[in-house]
Design goal:
Layout lengths: L13 H13 L5 H22 L5 H10 L16 H14 L13 H16 L3 H20 L4 H4 L4 H18 L3 H12 L18 H18 L15 H6 L4 H9 L23 H12 L7 E8 L4 H4 L3 H5 L11 H11 L13 H7 L2 E5 L11 E7 L4 E6 L12 H12 L7 H10 L3 H8 L6
Helix pairs in contact: 1-6, 1-9, 1-12, 2-4, 2-5, 2-6, 2-18, 2-19, 3-4, 4-5, 4-10, 5-6, 5-8, 5-10, 6-8, 6-12, 8-9, 8-10, 9-10, 13-16, 16-17, 18-19, 19-20
Length: 466
């Protein structure tokens, strides 16, 4: 429980209250359900990062690793040699986010693991922390990040910032501060320093550029640097969250968000949002997933692309700016990667090819997909519960006038439709096999399951096939 000031005493800053709550929580082991969720989400992030290290979209990070991964304490995905912790966090965080395959806490719209898993791994390696310490700090970082988003749901994005990036630097700094064993004052300073590291604007949507992946990498990098600078004596603003130029006012414009966050802090260590985080089973924007499922339902009814006269997609208002606007560009994205945010392309691809997978976005879409995408349109879905649920409705008109309508109440993998552990492990092993030699993926999975951090680092640094 966060420390509360006396009625007549000075008001503690939100950062200091938060740090007190996190330090109190760290004195207790993770509850069993939370520990299990932490291991599974952490493993999922590793798999996604490994897959990206072998993918075309990961090429910039492979190039950066050639310069930075020349020997260091921290592991870099796809590299034999390590790097400095902040550099490793930058590369690994970027890789974890570059395929749009990483997990999400839907209510807060936070891609937590693409920031926090690389930050926790690098910080644990340099501190020689145990696997249990690493996963504990990672889980508590998730609790910070989810609450920051829940305090102003959708407001970061509405202001043009990716919440994961601008808030992620602070959460990563707190993870690194815990693993470094900083005292309370330096812990608080790390959060304040990280505020100045916050970055990540949504302008990437103008052309689907791959810089979006840097949002997670930069947040992880900034968090590691913030903790290191705090340990060295740099100070930061105590009012990083609630101040006149703090996180909430500058990045959301919401005057009430700080007050909401203070309320959300009171059950840290008791209520765990990590257990509600969603796994993604398609490598594209999470908002698209229910529409891919809905297109699959049409296919199950025997709908063939050549028989489609038109498809109307009903889209939650909060998702539309990302997956629908501008519509002409979404119908004809410039690259396969840009199609990761294209509603008409993924619906058309699911109907035309029977699947949406990594290969779908490694190339520009085929002519059959693009032709069908031109027959798709959209309108707002009224009464949607976004972002708590990711809903979708499709109305498909066939040649001859027959109409098929389908609805998905929430995407598979989300909290209301949780996947089994087997599905997550299957995804991990398929991803890891793209970057690690035979058997190494199993070593990684066993190391995470047993919280053996040293074995994990060794397994991740095995030679990769090319």
């Amino acid at each position: 429980m966060a420390r509360r000031p006396c009625r007549d005493g000075p008001q503690l800053s939100l950062s200091r209250q938060l740090v007190a709550a996190l330090r109190a929580s760290a004195r207790q082991p993770l509850p069993g359900e939370v520990a299990s969720a932490a291991r599974l989400h952490f493993l999922d992030a590793l798999g996604v990062g490994l897959a990206a290290s072998a993918a075309a979209v990961g090429a910039p990070y492979r190039g950066l690793a050639q310069d930075l991964a020349r020997g260091g304490a921290a592991t870099v995905f796809g590299a034999r040699l390590g790097a400095a912790p902040a550099d490793a966090a930058l590369i690994n965080g970027g890789l974890c986010h570059s395929l749009e395959f990483d997990d999400t806490h839907t209510g807060s719209i936070m891609h937590g693991s693409s920031v926090l898993a690389p930050a926790a791994l690098a910080a644990a390696e340099v501190a020689n922390a145990s696997g249990a310490e690493m996963l504990g700090a990672y889980a508590r970082g998730w609790e910070v990040l989810a609450r920051l988003g829940l305090a102003a749901p959708g407001r970061f994005h509405a202001a043009g910032f990716q919440a994961t990036s601008v808030a992620g630097a602070i959460a990563a700094a707190l993870v690194a501060a815990e693993l470094a064993g900083l005292d309370e004052d330096r812990y608080v300073a790390a959060a304040g320093i990280a505020l100045s590291q916050g970055a990540g604007v949504m302008e990437f949507l103008s052309n689907g550029s791959s810089v979006k992946s840097l949002h997670s990498g930069w947040a992880a990098h900034g968090g590691l640097l913030a903790a290191s600078l705090a340990r060295a004596g740099m100070t930061g603003p105590e009012t990083a969250l609630e101040g006149r130029n703090g996180l909430f006012r500058q990045f959301t414009g919401d005057e009430n968000a700080a007050r909401r966050f203070e309320g959300l802090m009171q059950d840290i260590g008791q209520r765990w949002h990590l257990t509600e985080a969603a796994f993604k089973f398609y490598p594209c924007c999470h908002y698209l997933h229910p529409f891919i499922e809905a297109a699959g339902l049409l296919a199950d009814r025997g709908v063939k692309p050549e028989a489609v006269s038109s498809i109307l997609c009903r889209v939650p208002a909060g998702a539309a700016p990302v997956i629908c606007e501008p519509w002409a560009l979404k119908q004809a994205p410039e690259t396969g990667h840009a199609a990761r945010w294209s509603l008409p392309i993924v619906v058309a691809a699911r109907l035309a090819s029977g699947k949406v997978d990594l290969a779908t976005f490694e190339r520009a879409s085929g002519a059959d997909v693009r032709v069908l995408a031109q027959r798709i349109r959209w309108e707002p879905l009224h009464g949607a519960r976004f972002p708590e649920r990711f809903e979708a409705e499709l109305r498909c008109e066939l040649a001859g006038g027959k109409v098929e309508e389908v609805r998905v109440d929430d995407a598979f993998g989300n909290y209301s439709r949780p996947p089994g552990e087997a599905a997550v492990l299957e995804k991990f092993h398929a991803n890891a096999a793209l970057a690690l030699p035979s058997g190494a993926g199993e070593e990684v999975a066993k190391a995470v399951a047993s919280s053996d951090r040293a074995a994990l680092s060794a397994a991740l640094r095995q030679p990769v096939p090319r």
